[in-house]
Every structure is written in C-alpha cells, then in structure tokens.
Amino acid sequence: MSHISETRVTDCYCGKIAILKTSWTNDNPGRHFRVCPNTGGRGPALQCGFFMWVDPPMCPRGRAIIPGLLRKLKARDEEIASLKKRLRVMVAVILLLGFLLFFWFI
After folding, report:
1. What pLDDT shows up at residue 1?
2. Of 7, 25, 36, 53, which is least packed with CB atoms within 10 Å of its CB?
3. CB 51 within 8 A of CB 32
4. What Å distances lie between residue 14 and 42, 49, 54, CA to CA?
5. How many C-beta atoms surround the C-beta of residue 42 within 10 A?
6. Sequence ranges of the domains in the chain
7. pTM, two decimal places
8. What is the reported pLDDT for 77?
9. Of 55, 48, 61, 60, nearest in space to 17 by CA
C-alpha cells in the first residue's frame, strides 16, 4: 500500500496535476520536484505557487562532485559538436578536391 501512496499523483493548490521536473542547480543537481503547471506562465495571477521536493536532499559530497561532472560532460559535448563540424568541413573539401581532380584528368 505504501508504494501506491508514494507514486500517487500530486495536485497543486489550484487543483491541477503538479508536473515533475528536475533541478540542475549546483545546490540540487538531479533532484526531482513537482510544481504547478502554471508556474512560469504569463503573470503572477496564473501561478498558485505550489512547489514540493520529490527526492530527499543530496548529500554534501554529491553536491560537491556532481556540478563538476556536469561541467565536464558539457565541455565534452561541446568538443564533440566542434569535431563533428570540422569533420563535415573536411569531407566537403575532400569531395570538392576529388571532383576537381576527376574533371582535371578527363
């Protein structure tokens, strides 16, 4: 029975189903929370202000390590994107050179 109550849908103060989001701040990296679906809408009248953490607080060691790991991951993703772009340029140059050499010798 406790599993059912833990996975039960949470309603916000305005009666709508609160949506699940993930925090990526340095203090709460990867921590899940629920907010009103109107949060971030146009004007404060649309927001009921509901906020509830789903996960327990992260240990101090995790808060110290995870932001650094996320920065490294982001840097690797940027490096991969840059290398893919360079590869596309190199392939285009090789194809152009191949095309020119083909017609040079015909």
Report:
1. 31
2. 7
3. no
4. 16, 9, 19
5. 8
6. 1-58, 59-106
7. 0.57
8. 97
9. 48
